[in-house]
Amino acid sequence: MSENQPLTRFRRKAVKVEDALQSIISYISKAKTEKVSLEKSLKRTLSEDIQTSHPVPHFRRSGYDGYAVQSKDVEQASKQSPVYLKLVDDIPCGEVPGRRLESGQTARIMTGAMVPEEADSVIMLEATEQEERNGSTYVKFTKPIQSGKNITPIGEETAEGEVLLTKGTEVNPGAMAVLSSLGFSQVPVYKKPQIAVLSTGTELLEVDEPLEMGKIRNSNTYMIAGQIQHNGGEPVIIEKFPDDVDAARKKLQSLLANQELDMIITTGGVSVGDYDIMTDIFLNWEGKTLFNKVQMRPGSVTTAGVFRDKILFGLSGNPGASYVGFELFVKPSIERMLGGLGVQDKQTAYLKVNYTKVNAFPRFLRGYYEVKDGELWAQPVGLDQSSALLSMKDTNALIVIPPTKTGMKAGEKVNVIPV
Ligand SMILES: Nc1nc2c(c(=O)[nH]1)N[C@H]1C(S)=C(S)[C@@H](COP(=O)(O)OP(=O)(O)OC[C@H]3O[C@@H](n4cnc5c(N)ncnc54)[C@H](O)[C@@H]3O)O[C@H]1N2
Ligand code: MOO
User: Fold this and answer.
1) Which residues lie below 8 Å from residue 51, measured CB to CB, with a gap of 6+?
2) Matching CATH topology for 17-32+191-337 and 347-418?
3) pLDDT by residue (tens digit) across 103-142?
4) What digits encode the pLDDT tens for the residues 235-264?
5) Nearest Cα residue to atom 31 of ligand 1
6) What one-character-per-residue DSSP string does 146-157 give?
7) CA-to-CA distance for 110 and 90, rounded, in angstroms?
8) 20 C-alpha vs ligand 1 centroid, how far in Å?
9) Which atom from ligand 1 is nearest to the alpha carbon of 271?
10) Is 347-418 a CATH 3.40.720.10 domain?
Protein backbone atom coordinates (compact mmCIF):
# COMPACT_ATOMS: atom_id res chain seq x y z
CA MET A 1 0.00 0.00 0.00
CA SER A 2 1.19 3.51 -0.70
CA GLU A 3 2.83 5.54 2.07
CA ASN A 4 0.35 8.37 1.55
CA GLN A 5 -2.86 6.46 2.00
CA PRO A 6 -4.29 7.00 5.47
CA LEU A 7 -4.51 4.07 7.87
CA THR A 8 -8.01 2.73 8.29
CA ARG A 9 -9.57 -0.04 10.34
CA PHE A 10 -8.86 -2.49 7.50
CA ARG A 11 -5.99 -0.83 5.68
CA ARG A 12 -3.01 -1.21 7.96
CA LYS A 13 0.69 -1.14 7.25
CA ALA A 14 2.48 -3.94 9.10
CA VAL A 15 5.81 -2.61 10.37
CA LYS A 16 8.76 -4.69 11.49
CA VAL A 17 9.05 -5.35 15.24
CA GLU A 18 12.41 -3.50 15.39
CA ASP A 19 11.02 -0.47 13.56
CA ALA A 20 7.94 -0.41 15.77
CA LEU A 21 10.11 -0.49 18.89
CA GLN A 22 12.43 2.18 17.52
CA SER A 23 9.51 4.50 16.76
CA ILE A 24 8.36 4.22 20.38
CA ILE A 25 11.80 4.51 21.96
CA SER A 26 12.51 7.76 20.13
CA TYR A 27 9.73 9.40 22.21
CA ILE A 28 10.75 7.98 25.58
CA SER A 29 12.51 10.23 28.03
CA LYS A 30 14.25 9.22 31.24
CA ALA A 31 12.12 8.88 34.36
CA LYS A 32 12.29 11.53 37.08
CA THR A 33 14.62 10.75 39.95
CA GLU A 34 14.21 10.48 43.70
CA LYS A 35 16.09 9.29 46.76
CA VAL A 36 14.94 6.21 48.61
CA SER A 37 16.17 4.81 51.87
CA LEU A 38 18.83 2.15 51.47
CA GLU A 39 16.63 -0.64 52.81
CA LYS A 40 14.03 0.16 50.14
CA SER A 41 16.56 0.32 47.29
CA LEU A 42 16.54 -3.36 46.27
CA LYS A 43 15.68 -3.79 42.58
CA ARG A 44 15.49 -0.03 42.07
CA THR A 45 17.59 1.50 39.29
CA LEU A 46 20.41 3.90 40.11
CA SER A 47 20.01 7.35 38.60
CA GLU A 48 23.62 8.39 39.32
CA ASP A 49 27.03 6.77 39.16
CA ILE A 50 28.19 5.72 42.62
CA GLN A 51 31.77 6.78 43.23
CA THR A 52 34.03 5.95 46.15
CA SER A 53 34.82 8.90 48.41
CA HIS A 54 37.57 6.86 50.13
CA PRO A 55 39.66 3.77 49.42
CA VAL A 56 38.25 0.42 50.57
CA PRO A 57 39.51 -0.53 53.07
CA HIS A 58 40.61 2.88 54.29
CA PHE A 59 43.01 1.61 56.97
CA ARG A 60 45.40 -1.36 57.13
CA ARG A 61 43.33 -4.15 58.59
CA SER A 62 44.22 -7.44 60.23
CA GLY A 63 42.82 -10.52 58.46
CA TYR A 64 43.09 -12.72 61.57
CA ASP A 65 43.05 -12.79 65.34
CA GLY A 66 46.72 -12.90 66.25
CA TYR A 67 49.81 -10.77 66.87
CA ALA A 68 51.05 -7.82 64.86
CA VAL A 69 54.83 -8.00 64.37
CA GLN A 70 57.70 -6.56 62.40
CA SER A 71 58.54 -9.55 60.19
CA LYS A 72 62.28 -8.99 60.50
CA ASP A 73 61.98 -9.68 64.28
CA VAL A 74 60.89 -13.29 63.62
CA GLU A 75 63.11 -13.90 60.58
CA GLN A 76 65.23 -16.46 62.47
CA ALA A 77 62.38 -18.10 64.42
CA SER A 78 62.13 -21.90 64.35
CA LYS A 79 60.83 -24.70 66.57
CA GLN A 80 64.34 -25.30 67.88
CA SER A 81 65.09 -21.66 68.35
CA PRO A 82 61.89 -19.69 69.00
CA VAL A 83 61.77 -15.90 69.10
CA TYR A 84 60.06 -14.16 72.04
CA LEU A 85 58.55 -10.70 71.57
CA LYS A 86 57.27 -8.57 74.42
CA LEU A 87 53.49 -8.03 74.39
CA VAL A 88 52.87 -4.28 74.66
CA ASP A 89 49.37 -3.64 73.35
CA ASP A 90 45.98 -5.19 72.76
CA ILE A 91 44.11 -3.80 69.74
CA PRO A 92 40.40 -4.53 69.49
CA CYS A 93 38.33 -3.74 66.38
CA GLY A 94 37.28 -0.16 66.02
CA GLU A 95 40.28 1.38 67.82
CA VAL A 96 43.35 3.20 66.64
CA PRO A 97 46.52 1.50 68.01
CA GLY A 98 47.53 3.46 71.11
CA ARG A 99 51.30 3.13 70.93
CA ARG A 100 54.26 2.65 68.60
CA LEU A 101 55.40 -0.90 68.11
CA GLU A 102 59.18 -1.02 68.54
CA SER A 103 61.41 -3.81 67.31
CA GLY A 104 61.23 -6.69 69.80
CA GLN A 105 57.60 -5.94 70.61
CA THR A 106 54.28 -7.36 69.51
CA ALA A 107 50.61 -6.36 69.89
CA ARG A 108 47.66 -8.67 70.21
CA ILE A 109 45.17 -7.79 67.47
CA MET A 110 41.69 -8.89 66.40
CA THR A 111 40.31 -9.65 62.93
CA GLY A 112 39.33 -6.39 61.28
CA ALA A 113 41.33 -4.22 63.70
CA MET A 114 43.71 -1.49 62.56
CA VAL A 115 47.30 -2.68 62.32
CA PRO A 116 49.95 -0.46 63.99
CA GLU A 117 51.93 1.48 61.41
CA GLU A 118 55.25 -0.12 62.36
CA ALA A 119 53.98 -3.73 62.01
CA ASP A 120 54.12 -5.39 58.58
CA SER A 121 52.46 -8.75 59.31
CA VAL A 122 50.07 -10.57 61.61
CA ILE A 123 50.79 -14.05 62.97
CA MET A 124 47.72 -16.18 63.71
CA LEU A 125 46.93 -16.86 67.35
CA GLU A 126 47.07 -20.66 66.88
CA ALA A 127 50.75 -20.51 65.84
CA THR A 128 51.84 -18.81 69.09
CA GLU A 129 52.06 -19.29 72.84
CA GLN A 130 52.05 -16.71 75.62
CA GLU A 131 54.47 -16.81 78.53
CA GLU A 132 54.71 -14.72 81.71
CA ARG A 133 58.21 -13.67 82.75
CA ASN A 134 59.18 -11.16 85.45
CA GLY A 135 55.74 -9.59 85.43
CA SER A 136 55.73 -9.13 81.64
CA THR A 137 54.02 -11.16 78.93
CA TYR A 138 56.02 -12.56 76.02
CA VAL A 139 54.75 -14.26 72.89
CA LYS A 140 56.62 -17.21 71.43
CA PHE A 141 56.99 -17.46 67.64
CA THR A 142 58.40 -20.58 66.00
CA LYS A 143 58.22 -19.60 62.31
CA PRO A 144 59.20 -16.60 60.21
CA ILE A 145 56.49 -14.70 58.33
CA GLN A 146 56.46 -12.91 55.00
CA SER A 147 56.19 -9.13 55.11
CA GLY A 148 52.59 -8.05 54.40
CA LYS A 149 51.09 -11.41 55.37
CA ASN A 150 47.58 -11.36 56.89
CA ILE A 151 47.19 -7.60 56.48
CA THR A 152 44.64 -6.17 54.06
CA PRO A 153 46.31 -3.10 52.55
CA ILE A 154 44.58 0.26 52.13
CA GLY A 155 42.64 0.31 48.85
CA GLU A 156 42.96 -3.44 48.24
CA GLU A 157 39.40 -3.51 46.88
CA THR A 158 39.21 -0.05 45.39
CA ALA A 159 40.93 3.31 45.36
CA GLU A 160 39.23 6.64 46.06
CA GLY A 161 37.31 8.16 43.15
CA GLU A 162 36.43 4.90 41.37
CA VAL A 163 32.95 4.42 39.92
CA LEU A 164 31.71 1.21 41.52
CA LEU A 165 28.11 1.22 40.29
CA THR A 166 27.00 2.93 37.12
CA LYS A 167 23.80 4.84 36.51
CA GLY A 168 21.16 2.44 35.15
CA THR A 169 22.29 -0.47 37.34
CA GLU A 170 19.62 -2.40 39.20
CA VAL A 171 20.42 -2.51 42.91
CA ASN A 172 21.06 -6.06 44.12
CA PRO A 173 21.95 -7.18 47.66
CA GLY A 174 25.68 -6.88 46.86
CA ALA A 175 25.18 -3.32 45.64
CA MET A 176 23.35 -2.61 48.92
CA ALA A 177 26.54 -3.66 50.75
CA VAL A 178 28.60 -1.29 48.60
CA LEU A 179 26.15 1.58 49.11
CA SER A 180 26.15 1.02 52.87
CA SER A 181 29.92 0.95 53.09
CA LEU A 182 30.14 4.21 51.15
CA GLY A 183 27.65 5.95 53.43
CA PHE A 184 24.59 6.08 51.15
CA SER A 185 21.69 5.90 53.60
CA GLN A 186 19.63 7.50 50.80
CA VAL A 187 20.06 6.08 47.32
CA PRO A 188 19.53 8.09 44.11
CA VAL A 189 17.18 6.12 41.85
CA TYR A 190 14.82 6.66 38.96
CA LYS A 191 11.20 7.02 40.01
CA LYS A 192 9.21 3.96 39.06
CA PRO A 193 7.33 4.79 35.86
CA GLN A 194 3.63 5.12 36.69
CA ILE A 195 1.78 3.09 34.11
CA ALA A 196 -1.98 3.06 33.81
CA VAL A 197 -3.39 -0.29 32.76
CA LEU A 198 -6.93 -0.89 31.71
CA SER A 199 -8.80 -3.46 29.76
CA THR A 200 -11.63 -2.86 27.34
CA GLY A 201 -14.46 -5.25 26.65
CA THR A 202 -18.11 -5.54 27.61
CA GLU A 203 -17.51 -9.28 28.10
CA LEU A 204 -15.17 -8.68 31.02
CA LEU A 205 -16.13 -9.48 34.59
CA GLU A 206 -14.29 -8.34 37.70
CA VAL A 207 -12.10 -11.01 39.23
CA ASP A 208 -14.49 -11.55 42.15
CA GLU A 209 -17.66 -11.70 40.04
CA PRO A 210 -19.31 -15.08 39.36
CA LEU A 211 -18.92 -16.39 35.82
CA GLU A 212 -21.71 -15.75 33.37
CA MET A 213 -22.28 -17.36 30.00
CA GLY A 214 -20.39 -15.48 27.26
CA LYS A 215 -18.36 -13.50 29.77
CA ILE A 216 -14.86 -13.99 31.18
CA ARG A 217 -12.95 -12.55 34.09
CA ASN A 218 -10.50 -9.78 33.30
CA SER A 219 -7.06 -11.42 33.48
CA ASN A 220 -5.06 -9.08 31.23
CA THR A 221 -5.12 -6.18 33.67
CA TYR A 222 -3.52 -8.23 36.43
CA MET A 223 -1.09 -10.03 34.15
CA ILE A 224 0.10 -6.69 32.80
CA ALA A 225 0.22 -5.16 36.28
CA GLY A 226 2.53 -8.06 37.15
CA GLN A 227 4.67 -7.50 34.06
CA ILE A 228 4.95 -3.80 34.90
CA GLN A 229 6.12 -4.51 38.44
CA HIS A 230 8.45 -7.26 37.28
CA ASN A 231 10.19 -4.71 35.08
CA GLY A 232 10.49 -1.88 37.59
CA GLY A 233 7.32 0.12 36.93
CA GLU A 234 4.32 0.88 39.12
CA PRO A 235 0.94 -0.18 37.74
CA VAL A 236 -2.01 2.13 38.20
CA ILE A 237 -5.05 -0.05 37.68
CA ILE A 238 -7.93 1.73 36.00
CA GLU A 239 -11.43 0.37 35.95
CA LYS A 240 -12.13 -1.57 32.74
CA PHE A 241 -14.22 0.15 30.03
CA PRO A 242 -17.17 -1.26 28.23
CA ASP A 243 -17.07 -1.12 24.42
CA ASP A 244 -18.38 2.45 24.25
CA VAL A 245 -16.12 4.56 22.13
CA ASP A 246 -17.22 7.98 23.42
CA ALA A 247 -16.90 7.05 27.08
CA ALA A 248 -13.56 5.40 26.37
CA ARG A 249 -12.26 8.43 24.47
CA LYS A 250 -13.19 10.73 27.37
CA LYS A 251 -11.53 8.49 29.91
CA LEU A 252 -8.39 8.20 27.81
CA GLN A 253 -8.22 11.95 27.35
CA SER A 254 -8.18 12.42 31.10
CA LEU A 255 -5.52 9.73 31.53
CA LEU A 256 -3.35 11.28 28.81
CA ALA A 257 -3.62 14.67 30.52
CA ASN A 258 -2.76 13.25 33.94
CA GLN A 259 0.74 14.45 34.83
CA GLU A 260 1.18 11.63 37.33
CA LEU A 261 1.09 9.01 34.60
CA ASP A 262 4.06 8.15 32.37
CA MET A 263 2.43 5.62 30.02
CA ILE A 264 -0.96 4.08 29.37
CA ILE A 265 -1.65 0.51 28.34
CA THR A 266 -5.00 -0.69 27.11
CA THR A 267 -5.83 -4.23 26.09
CA GLY A 268 -8.47 -5.34 23.65
CA GLY A 269 -10.45 -3.62 20.97
CA VAL A 270 -7.61 -3.08 18.48
CA SER A 271 -8.74 -5.49 15.76
CA VAL A 272 -11.29 -4.99 12.98
CA GLY A 273 -14.45 -6.03 14.83
CA ASP A 274 -17.52 -3.84 15.22
CA TYR A 275 -16.81 -3.17 18.89
CA ASP A 276 -13.05 -2.68 18.57
CA ILE A 277 -13.16 0.79 20.11
CA MET A 278 -9.44 1.30 20.45
CA THR A 279 -9.06 0.92 16.69
CA ASP A 280 -11.45 3.87 16.24
CA ILE A 281 -9.71 5.94 18.87
CA PHE A 282 -6.25 5.40 17.36
CA LEU A 283 -7.60 6.49 13.95
CA ASN A 284 -8.96 9.74 15.34
CA TRP A 285 -7.42 11.25 18.46
CA GLU A 286 -5.30 14.18 19.51
CA GLY A 287 -2.10 12.08 19.59
CA LYS A 288 -0.04 10.56 16.80
CA THR A 289 -0.53 6.89 15.96
CA LEU A 290 2.90 5.33 15.41
CA PHE A 291 1.71 1.98 14.03
CA ASN A 292 -1.39 -0.19 14.15
CA LYS A 293 -0.02 -3.43 12.77
CA VAL A 294 3.23 -5.24 13.41
CA GLN A 295 4.89 -8.10 11.54
CA MET A 296 4.54 -10.49 14.44
CA ARG A 297 2.44 -13.34 15.75
CA PRO A 298 0.73 -13.24 18.10
CA GLY A 299 -0.24 -9.63 18.49
CA SER A 300 -0.13 -8.43 14.89
CA VAL A 301 -2.77 -5.81 15.72
CA THR A 302 -0.61 -4.28 18.47
CA THR A 303 -0.97 -0.52 18.21
CA ALA A 304 0.91 2.40 19.76
CA GLY A 305 0.73 6.15 19.66
CA VAL A 306 2.12 9.19 21.39
CA PHE A 307 0.41 12.19 22.91
CA ARG A 308 2.97 14.86 23.89
CA ASP A 309 5.64 12.59 25.42
CA LYS A 310 3.26 9.94 26.69
CA ILE A 311 3.00 6.59 24.95
CA LEU A 312 -0.40 4.94 24.63
CA PHE A 313 -0.06 1.22 23.96
CA GLY A 314 -3.07 -0.56 22.53
CA LEU A 315 -2.27 -4.20 23.14
CA SER A 316 -4.39 -6.95 21.76
CA GLY A 317 -7.11 -8.41 23.98
CA ASN A 318 -6.07 -12.00 23.45
CA PRO A 319 -4.04 -12.86 26.56
CA GLY A 320 -1.13 -14.45 24.66
CA ALA A 321 -0.92 -11.53 22.29
CA SER A 322 -1.05 -8.88 25.01
CA TYR A 323 1.64 -10.73 26.99
CA VAL A 324 3.93 -10.80 23.96
CA GLY A 325 3.12 -7.20 23.02
CA PHE A 326 4.13 -6.10 26.51
CA GLU A 327 7.42 -8.00 26.42
CA LEU A 328 8.38 -6.71 22.97
CA PHE A 329 7.41 -3.08 23.35
CA VAL A 330 6.51 -2.00 26.88
CA LYS A 331 9.37 -3.75 28.66
CA PRO A 332 12.10 -2.03 26.60
CA SER A 333 10.24 1.28 27.02
CA ILE A 334 10.35 0.95 30.81
CA GLU A 335 13.99 -0.08 30.60
CA ARG A 336 14.69 3.05 28.57
CA MET A 337 12.94 5.25 31.14
CA LEU A 338 15.13 3.66 33.79
CA GLY A 339 18.34 4.71 32.05
CA GLY A 340 18.81 1.67 29.77
CA LEU A 341 19.02 1.47 26.01
CA GLY A 342 15.55 0.06 25.43
CA VAL A 343 16.60 -2.83 23.21
CA GLN A 344 15.63 -6.49 23.23
CA ASP A 345 17.86 -8.71 25.31
CA LYS A 346 18.38 -11.70 22.97
CA GLN A 347 20.22 -14.96 23.51
CA THR A 348 20.77 -17.95 21.29
CA ALA A 349 19.46 -21.38 22.20
CA TYR A 350 18.85 -24.73 20.53
CA LEU A 351 15.24 -25.59 19.79
CA LYS A 352 14.36 -28.74 21.73
CA VAL A 353 11.43 -29.92 19.58
CA ASN A 354 10.31 -29.64 15.96
CA TYR A 355 8.13 -26.61 15.21
CA THR A 356 5.98 -27.30 12.20
CA LYS A 357 3.68 -24.28 11.90
CA VAL A 358 4.44 -22.07 8.88
CA ASN A 359 4.52 -18.31 9.39
CA ALA A 360 4.39 -15.25 7.23
CA PHE A 361 5.51 -13.08 10.17
CA PRO A 362 8.08 -13.83 12.88
CA ARG A 363 6.42 -15.76 15.67
CA PHE A 364 7.18 -15.18 19.34
CA LEU A 365 6.41 -18.43 21.09
CA ARG A 366 5.88 -18.54 24.79
CA GLY A 367 8.66 -20.85 25.85
CA TYR A 368 10.90 -22.19 28.55
CA TYR A 369 14.66 -22.23 28.26
CA GLU A 370 17.25 -23.83 30.46
CA VAL A 371 20.87 -24.88 30.49
CA LYS A 372 21.42 -28.58 29.73
CA ASP A 373 24.98 -29.93 29.57
CA GLY A 374 26.35 -26.43 29.20
CA GLU A 375 24.06 -25.41 26.31
CA LEU A 376 20.85 -23.37 26.26
CA TRP A 377 17.78 -25.31 25.06
CA ALA A 378 14.37 -23.79 24.49
CA GLN A 379 10.95 -25.35 23.98
CA PRO A 380 7.45 -23.95 23.62
CA VAL A 381 5.14 -24.25 26.61
CA GLY A 382 1.41 -24.96 26.46
CA LEU A 383 -0.87 -23.93 23.66
CA ASP A 384 0.54 -21.57 21.11
CA GLN A 385 -2.77 -19.82 20.32
CA SER A 386 -3.01 -16.11 20.88
CA SER A 387 -6.11 -16.73 23.00
CA ALA A 388 -4.35 -19.26 25.28
CA LEU A 389 -4.15 -18.10 28.87
CA LEU A 390 -2.30 -20.84 30.74
CA SER A 391 1.04 -20.97 28.96
CA MET A 392 2.30 -17.65 30.37
CA LYS A 393 2.68 -19.04 33.88
CA ASP A 394 5.43 -21.40 32.66
CA THR A 395 7.10 -18.95 30.29
CA ASN A 396 10.60 -17.66 30.97
CA ALA A 397 11.42 -16.60 27.41
CA LEU A 398 9.90 -15.87 24.04
CA ILE A 399 11.27 -18.14 21.33
CA VAL A 400 11.68 -16.27 18.05
CA ILE A 401 10.65 -18.35 15.03
CA PRO A 402 11.52 -16.43 11.87
CA PRO A 403 9.08 -16.45 8.93
CA THR A 404 9.30 -19.95 7.50
CA LYS A 405 7.55 -22.12 4.92
CA THR A 406 8.87 -25.35 6.37
CA GLY A 407 8.89 -24.87 10.14
CA MET A 408 11.99 -25.53 12.21
CA LYS A 409 13.70 -28.74 13.31
CA ALA A 410 14.77 -29.74 16.80
CA GLY A 411 18.45 -28.84 17.27
CA GLU A 412 18.27 -25.70 15.10
CA LYS A 413 19.43 -22.46 16.66
CA VAL A 414 16.85 -19.83 17.60
CA ASN A 415 16.89 -16.48 19.32
CA VAL A 416 15.21 -16.33 22.72
CA ILE A 417 14.11 -13.21 24.55
CA PRO A 418 14.15 -13.73 28.33
CA VAL A 419 11.04 -12.38 30.06
N1 LIG B 1 -11.74 -10.41 11.12
C2 LIG B 1 -10.65 -10.42 11.89
N3 LIG B 1 -10.78 -10.85 13.13
C4 LIG B 1 -9.70 -10.87 13.93
C5 LIG B 1 -8.43 -10.47 13.43
C6 LIG B 1 -8.35 -10.02 12.11
O7 LIG B 1 -7.27 -9.64 11.63
N8 LIG B 1 -9.48 -9.99 11.37
N9 LIG B 1 -7.34 -10.56 14.24
C10 LIG B 1 -7.42 -11.58 15.26
C11 LIG B 1 -6.30 -11.52 16.12
S12 LIG B 1 -4.86 -12.05 15.47
C13 LIG B 1 -6.40 -11.10 17.42
S14 LIG B 1 -5.05 -11.23 18.43
C15 LIG B 1 -7.61 -10.57 17.96
C16 LIG B 1 -7.32 -9.23 18.56
O17 LIG B 1 -8.47 -8.70 19.02
P18 LIG B 1 -8.53 -7.40 19.95
O19 LIG B 1 -7.17 -6.98 20.33
O20 LIG B 1 -9.38 -6.42 19.29
O21 LIG B 1 -9.16 -7.95 21.27
P22 LIG B 1 -10.68 -8.25 21.63
O23 LIG B 1 -11.43 -8.56 20.39
O24 LIG B 1 -11.14 -7.18 22.50
O25 LIG B 1 -10.47 -9.57 22.45
C26 LIG B 1 -9.86 -10.72 21.91
C27 LIG B 1 -10.07 -11.87 22.88
O28 LIG B 1 -9.41 -11.59 24.09
C29 LIG B 1 -10.31 -11.64 25.20
N30 LIG B 1 -9.96 -10.57 26.17
C31 LIG B 1 -10.06 -9.27 25.92
N32 LIG B 1 -9.70 -8.57 27.02
C33 LIG B 1 -9.37 -9.47 27.95
C34 LIG B 1 -8.94 -9.37 29.29
N35 LIG B 1 -8.78 -8.18 29.88
N36 LIG B 1 -8.68 -10.49 29.98
C37 LIG B 1 -8.84 -11.70 29.38
N38 LIG B 1 -9.25 -11.86 28.10
C39 LIG B 1 -9.53 -10.77 27.40
C40 LIG B 1 -11.63 -11.35 24.57
O41 LIG B 1 -12.70 -11.80 25.35
C42 LIG B 1 -11.52 -12.08 23.25
O43 LIG B 1 -11.76 -13.45 23.43
O44 LIG B 1 -8.60 -10.42 16.99
C45 LIG B 1 -8.70 -11.50 16.07
N46 LIG B 1 -9.81 -11.30 15.23
O1 MOO C 1 -2.88 -10.46 17.21
MO2 MOO C 1 -3.22 -12.09 16.88
O3 MOO C 1 -2.54 -12.54 18.33
O4 MOO C 1 -1.90 -11.87 15.66
O5 MOO C 1 -2.97 -13.83 16.72
Assistant:
1) 161, 162, 163, 164
2) no
3) 999 999 999 999 999 999 999 999 999 999 999 999 999 9
4) 999 998 878 899 999 999 999 999 999 999
5) 317
6) -TTTTEEPTTSS
7) 9
8) 20
9) 20
10) no
Which of 270-302 are b and which e, b meaning 16 or more Cβ less than 10 Å from the residue's Cβ? Answer: bbeeebbbbbbbbeebebebbbbbbbbbbbbbb
CATH class of 38-55+158-190: alpha beta
Give me the amino acid identity at 222. Answer: Y
3-class DSSP state for residue 310?
strand
158 touches 56 (CB < 8 A): yes
Give the atom of ligand 2 at the shortest distance from the alpha carbon of 299: 1
Domain locations in the chain as residue ranges = 17-32+191-337, 38-55+158-190, 61-152, 347-418
Query: Ligand 1: which of 301, 384, 386 to mutate, judged by most atoms within 8 Å of the beta carbon?
Result: 301
Q: Which CATH architecture has domain 61-152?
A: Beta Complex (2.170)
Among all bound ligands, the one having the nearest atom to the CA of 320 is: 2
CATH 3.40.50.1820 fits 17-32+191-337, yes or no: no
Is the ipTM beyond the 0.90 threshold? Answer: yes
The pLDDT of residue 244 is 87
pTM attached to this predicted model: 0.91
Q: Is the CB of 219 under 6 A from ligand 1?
A: yes
Check whether 1 has a pLDDT greater than 50. no
pLDDT at 8 over 90: no
